[in-house]
Design goal:
This protein has twelve helices and nine strands. By secondary structure, the chain is an alpha+beta fold. 20% of the residues are buried. The model has no long low-confidence stretch (mean pLDDT 88). The structure holds adenosine-5'-diphosphate (ADP). The site of adenosine-5'-diphosphate has 20 residues, from helix 10 and helix 12.
Length: 517
């Protein structure tokens, strides 16, 4: 994945995490606010129910009619609070409280109407004796608190027609008051539960928030740390390595980086760098070869000038010696025997050898420009081998030619023949007259590749660089000019020659020649 995509992806991941956290925090905040609101309402309900009970107690204790108004007011207020609290919870206790409050209200209304009725009836009652009149205010004040005791007082000290009726009435009033008190207790119990529940919910939400903070904070640190490690390891480290490798390349040590497996920009950069390093390596190798060739040409040119001078100087005295020896041999005729005849023959053969060396020297030194014509290289190779076979050294050499029947190119026929004569002679020398000479011709579109391989003793690596130098030879009677002449001719044809050899196994000379000038 590309770095751009990775950055976009990590942005979206971080954005999603932050957005989720923000939404969670907002919801949590809303929930907390609701819970506090609910707690506030639950607390008010609890406070009002306590007030309700206080006024209820006062009413039964003192029978003060102001308390009735208070009680109705508080019932109304609690009902309004229940209505307000309902949207914040699905708690059954609110409904239960509502029902109990309604029951309480009905019971209270019933008790107050019973009480006012009793009040009216009490005013019309006559005491058995006038001195008992003082009991009326006492009964009025206490009948709600102790209905049964007051029923006894009425029975004893007042003239009452329906005695049992009063007793039953006050008994019923007493029971209703008991029921009302029970309802009141229930209301207090429910409101307590509501209050406790609301507190627990607030505590819960605080706990959840605490846990969320404790989990998310380290988690976001962990995610941040992982991203940082990934970016530093995957991108920065690779870039650092690339920088070091480029610095080394600048100092001339081209080395490719390990092949990158990814497909991001850094991997592409490393791949591009590797391609560039490879291309630079190839160019450097080419440059080195060209430099070597230039050195070789310079060397050959200076040696050529020297050689040509020496050859010219030697040629005339050598001819004189040779002609003199021939005249001497002729003059002495048949009479000449023994040591004199041997010496004259020796002079003749040695001067002949030196003349050949001088001719070679001149050949090398002149380094004629090729006379380009269309030639069939396969013919040249075959012709040169057939002629070479006539020499004794070639008798036991097997010749193998792998080639199409005709391969045409533009070249100097005589010079190319010279190339193969020299290569074949060297091969025969290396094989000591016995072995295999293998020639392969590979025609290509613009050039021809020719390989001349022998199964001879090979070239030791320490002299491999010198074999194309003029006068370098390892042979007793060698001139050291054969390969320099080959080198010059191939170079003048715009081609190249190289050698590959294994000591004890054989040598291959590889020649490239352009097909067209
Ligand atoms: P010369 O044959 O006179 O020595 P060359 O220039 O032809 O000169 O060869 C130079 C040297 O290269 C040889 O003396 C020999 O050591 C080595 N050489 C050339 N061709 C071969 C070959 N085919 N196998 C082994 N050594 C070779």
């Amino acid at each position: 994945m590309s770095i751009k995509k990775k950055i976009i992806l990590s942005f979206f991941i971080s954005f999603s995490i932050i957005a989720t956290l923000a939404i969670a925090a907002y919801l949590d905040f809303r929930e907390t606010r609701n819970e506090f609101k609910y707690l506030e309402l639950a607390e008010s309900i609890r406070g009002k129910t306590l007030q309700l009970r206080r006024h209820e107690k006062n009413f039964f204790l003192y029978g003060d009619s102001k308390e009735i108004d208070f009680i109705h007011r508080y019932i109304g207020e609690i009902e309004a609070l229940i209505k307000d609290a309902k949207p914040y919870t699905r708690n059954d206790n609110l409904d239960r409280l509502d029902v109990k409050l309604k029951e309480f209200s009905l019971e209270f209304v019933k008790i107050t109407s019973m009480a006012s009725k009793f009040h009216k009836e009490l005013a019309s009652l006559k005491p058995k004796e006038p001195s008992y009149l003082f009991l009326i205010p006492i009964i009025k004040a206490t009948f709600l608190e102790h209905p049964m005791q007051n029923a006894q007082l009425l029975k004893r000290f007042f003239r009452i027609s329906r005695k049992d009726g009063y007793i039953t009435f006050l008994k019923r009033l007493g029971n209703d008051i008991k029921d009302l008190r029970k309802s009141g207790e229930k209301i207090i119990g429910i409101s307590k539960e509501l209050d406790r529940g609301a507190r627990e919910r607030v505590q819960n939400i605080i706990n959840v928030t605490k846990v969320a903070v404790l989990v998310f904070l380290p988690l976001s640190f962990l995610i941040g740390f992982i991203s940082l490690f990934y970016i530093s390891h995957n991108i920065v480290n690779r870039l650092k390595k690339l920088m070091l490798t480029i610095e080394k390349s600048g100092a001339g040590f081209f080395s490719p980086m390990p092949f990158p497996s990814g497909h991001d920009e850094v991997s592409t950069l490393i791949r591009t760098y590797n391609n560039m390093a490879e291309a630079l390596q190839v160019r450097e190798e080419l440059l080195r070869k060209k430099e070597e060739e230039l050195m070789q040409s310079k060397k050959l040119a200076s040696i050529g000038t020297l050689a040509s001078g020496v050859a010219h100087e030697l040629n005339n005295p050598l001819n004189n010696i040779h002609i003199s020896a021939q005249i001497l041999a002729k003059e002495m005729g048949e009479d000449c025997t023994g040591i004199i005849e041997e010496t004259v023959d020796d002079i003749l053969s040695q001067t002949f050898r030196v003349k050949k060396i001088v001719a070679n020297l001149l050949d090398f030194a002149r380094s004629k420009e090729p006379d380009f014509q269309e030639v069939n290289i396969v013919n040249i190779i075959q012709k040169r081998y057939t002629q070479a076979q006539k020499i004794t050294g070639f008798k036991d050499i097997a010749f193998l030619l792998e080639s199409p029947p005709e391969v045409f190119l533009q070249a100097d026929q005589v010079q190319l023949e010279r190339v193969f004569v020299n290569l074949f002679t060297n091969a025969a020398d290396a094989m000591a007259g016995k072995g295999e000479l293998h020639v392969k011709v590979f025609p290509e579109k613009d050039k021809v590749k020719i390989e001349v391989s022998d199964s001879g003793n090979g070239i030791p690596p320490e002299i491999k660089d010198k074999i194309f130098d003029p006068f370098f030879t390892t042979k007793d009677r060698g001139t050291g000019l054969g390969l320099s002449i080959v080198y010059n001719i191939i170079k003048n044809h715009g081609g190249s020659v190289s050698v590959e050899s294994t000591v004890g196994a054989g040598t291959t000379f590889r020649i490239f020649l352009p097909r067209y000038k």
